[in-house]
Amino acid sequence: MGKLDFAPIADTTRRAEIVALLRRAILTGQLEPGQKLNELRIAEQMRVSRAPLREAMRELVQEGILTSIPYAGTFVIDVTAKDIDDAYSLNKVLDEFAIELTWPLRDQRFFDELDRRHEAVKQATRDRDTTRQIETALQLHGLIHEWADNSVLLETWQRLTSRLQMYFALHQRARKEPVPDEDIHETYVRLLKGADMRAAQSHAREHIGLDFEELLAYARSLEQRDSKGAKADRAGPTRNRPEAS
Amino acid sequence: MGKLDFAPIADTTRRAEIVALLRRAILTGQLEPGQKLNELRIAEQMRVSRAPLREAMRELVQEGILTSIPYAGTFVIDVTAKDIDDAYSLNKVLDEFAIELTWPLRDQRFFDELDRRHEAVKQATRDRDTTRQIETALQLHGLIHEWADNSVLLETWQRLTSRLQMYFALHQRARKEPVPDEDIHETYVRLLKGADMRAAQSHAREHIGLDFEELLAYARSLEQRDSKGAKADRAGPTRNRPEAS
DNA sequence: GAGAAGCAGACTGTCGACAATCTAACAAGA
DNA sequence: TCTTGTTAGATTGTCGACAGTCTGCTTCTC
């Protein structure tokens, strides 16, 4: 028999597609932080009953980008400066760990994939497609986590990434100029190809820190604005989180 | 008006209670790894319809202790030696980070809570209650993550803990003698109260390593046994994970 | 007897309807 | 005018039933 490996066919349940749709809507900022998701309306728009929609929402709640309050509703999570700070500081630790694990596993296929993803970022930058630029940049950074051969690490990073992507989208959407960021990733890629692991680790930490400071400042300005009243329609969940212990 | 703070009342939806029930059943080993969860049977036993049960199961899938295959069923995750290895190595990194964050925040309340949880472990040990011993030991180790004031870290650790608790339960259930482990935590607690952060960090790494080796050896022996046939009724999910990208 | 086609049976996925709960507007009383 | 009780509307939580899919057995053919 032939040695051809077939890729598994796509999961074809309504629930899975709803999850993908909702996740994309949230991560690209089409659904704003704090916004309430009306089950009936969304179900009608998607031509789906509420059952699979609700199951999809439960998944996204556990994924950390939605939050649910019993009998009140399900909301897109609110972005606080502290959340961003927390996520980034943990991300640094994970990056360092991922580089350590990936380092001895690097091979030609790794370098090729690294270049491919780097090229995708540059392409998105040329196209002035900010949404895609965020996506591709995160995919570039995700390579070390995928390559590290530690499923728990990968899973953790992906969860963190969801949130970071949300924050970035919020940020990018807010600022006027589409995007400057010419080629910050150049050094990152070069170091990952090099021989000095420590250098790669500390650069990852530095580099991430840069975008971060700007994002954090933006988040803080948002909070200042919000706290001065004018809370708009973004219903503020005031009760406890649904996560039981 | 008075300054009394009321705690938020308990979330009282069937779904939340089902989640708690199922999680406990899985973490204590009442539901074995690989076992399939029959929706109809469980729903009848709990006197609940399938809707909230299914939603609860979606949450636990995202929590990482169940795995779902469309049109085939939902299963308790299988424990592989690699999973344990992955989880533990990440756990070390997280512990180190948590100690770093917690260190400057330690105060009298921290030390009191530390002693309280340490005492709970010793009590469970005296009672020869292995399940509770696992629970309390993990709670003791969780304190640094709770105290670190980083919600993302805490969430990540709790997710990891779920899995570790499962593995521990499996292990404890298997070995004959109830439990030796007199007071390994004594040093850990003392170092956390001390002045040398590095020492505390490296001890956390060492200490965790101990239990780990034993657990890992057990997992490997399990896999050897399984691969020699006799796969029992534990239906092995052979298709792809449901997690779409 | 071996292998393919077809056929129940069981189970998961989805739907529409009902029950429980919350919110906000309104009325009544001090 | 402020507080409290009431009520209607909207929304979420739950239920029972139906449809789609998989699995294992049976049957038929060679």
TrEMBL record, chains A, B:
Does this entry carry the keyword ATP-binding? no
UniProt keyword annotation of Kinase present: no
Residue segments, region Disordered:
223-245
Signal sequence region = none
Q: Which GO terms describe its molecular function?
A: DNA binding; DNA-binding transcription factor activity
What protein is this chain from? GntR family transcriptional regulator
Q: Which keywords annotate this record?
A: DNA-binding, Transcription, Transcription regulation
The UniProt entry, under PROSITE patterns, shows: HTH_GNTR
